[in-house]
């Protein structure tokens, strides 16, 4: 008998019917039941905001990390920067005196040692710039990239192009270890140790000058001449270089410092590419990064060098994209500037400004401008761009 009270035993909660074995007609009610307890904001967050955040981090995580770098990494200790004096008509004795040094009775011997990958054009420019003042050129190449990929012996295959250097050249080849998944910097360090041994074979002695730099970090000839003639120079001196990207059309800054010159000391001097001194000689050369004649050379280096983790997506190596990047002066890896303050990061965002100046460049480029026009302003199209 109906007593005026609602009986829950027959219908119970609506979910007992619609979330159990209820009829199809209640399908919408089932959805409502399943979502009961969730408010609209939570649903939007789970279905829209959270996936969007995950996608953004996946696509732009590296940019986010670089942008907030000032929060988690402090700038390195400043260098003691040494002013650099030079003039064609100024005597070497006067130049040494301007730097606070004394002139020697005879110049030191100079060794230029590099690990070589595939930079045939930039190596030609480098060796022609340094030829008047270097006694021995030491080059080591491997059949492996730093990332463990097989590599042609580019220098050995193009050795005929360097006949002018043969009497002063010590060449070495080292077999790669081809260890998959290994940090590329381990292979790089392995090859640098081998270069130390090659220098000993070349006959380097105490107080000889040793240039340590990558092939595309080119000291100016007058800088090396100064250092070989002057006494009392620091035992290890880093060289400040003008940074260029893709060619000498895109000047970025003068913050390149990894190149260095050492007064060799047996048992102590080791070939390296990191900071080894607090002394920095101002305006001492050029660092032309990714300054290649062909798109194929860009792609090879992107796969081969120690920072290959920057190639996050395969389309980065699309030749049409690379050609577009070269002409616009944008970043090859779609990265933010590697700086330590928000001011510097924001200030360097976007394409590198075009420069129309070809003043104070390696003389060999200007003397052979037709051959090396791809390095000069206004010539961004590469030979194999199609």
TrEMBL record:
It holds the Pfam family Glyco_transf_17. GO terms for molecular function: beta-1,4-mannosylglycoprotein 4-beta-N-acetylglucosaminyltransferase activity. Signal peptide: none annotated. GO terms for biological process: N-acetylglucosamine metabolic process. The keyword Membrane applies. One of its GO terms (cellular component) is membrane. It comes from the Eukaryota. The chain crosses the membrane at residues 38-59. Keywords: Membrane, Transmembrane, Transmembrane helix. This is Beta-1,4-mannosyl-glycoprotein 4-beta-N-acetylglucosaminyltransferase. It comes from Trapa natans (Water chestnut).
């Amino acid at each position: 008998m109906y007593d005026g009270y609602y009986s829950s035993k027959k219908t119970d909660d609506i979910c007992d019917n619609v979330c159990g074995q209820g009829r199809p007609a209640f399908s919408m009610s089932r959805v409502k039941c399943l979502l009961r307890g969730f408010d609209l904001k939570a649903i939007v967050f789970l279905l829209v905001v959270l996936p969007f955040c995950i996608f953004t981090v996946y696509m732009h995580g590296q940019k986010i990390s670089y942008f907030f770098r000032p929060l988690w990494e402090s700038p390195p200790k400043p260098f003691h920067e040494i002013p650099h004096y030079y003039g064609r008509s100024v005597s070497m004795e006067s130049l040494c005196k301007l730097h606070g040094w004394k002139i020697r009775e005879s110049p030191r011997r100079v060794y230029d040692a590099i690990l070589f990958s595939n930079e045939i054009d930039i190596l030609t420019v480098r060796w022609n710039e340094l030829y008047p003042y270097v006694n021995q050129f030491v080059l080591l190449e491997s059949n492996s990239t730093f990332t463990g990929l097989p590599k042609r012996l580019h220098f050995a295959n193009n050795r005929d192009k360097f006949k002018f250097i043969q009497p002063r050249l010590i060449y070495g080849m080292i077999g790669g270890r081809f260890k998959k998944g290994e940090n590329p910097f381990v292979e790089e360090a392995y090859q640098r140790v081998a270069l130390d041994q090659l220098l000993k074979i070349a006959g380097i002695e105490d107080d000889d000058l040793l240039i340590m730099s990558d092939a595309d970090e080119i000291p100016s000839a007058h800088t090396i001449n100064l250092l070989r003639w002057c006494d009392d120079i620091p035992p290890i001196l880093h060289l400040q270089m003008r940074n260029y990207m893709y060619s000498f059309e895109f000047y970025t800054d003068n913050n390149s410092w990894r190149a260095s010159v050492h007064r060799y000391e047996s048992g102590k001097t080791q070939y390296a590419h990191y900071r080894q001194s607090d002394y920095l000689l101002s305006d001492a050369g050029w660092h032309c990064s990714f300054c290649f004649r062909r798109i194929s050379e860009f792609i090879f280096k992107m796969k081969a060098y120690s920072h290959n983790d920057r190639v996050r997506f395969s389309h980065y190596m699309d030749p049409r994209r690379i050609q577009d990047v070269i002409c616009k002066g944008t970043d090859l890896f779609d990265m933010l500037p590697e700086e330590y303050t928000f001011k510097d990061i924001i200030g360097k965002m976007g394409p590198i400004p075009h420069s129309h100046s070809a003043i104070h460049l390696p003389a060999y480029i200007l003397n052979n401008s037709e051959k090396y026009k791809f390095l000069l302003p206004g010539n961004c199209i590469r030979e194999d761009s199609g």
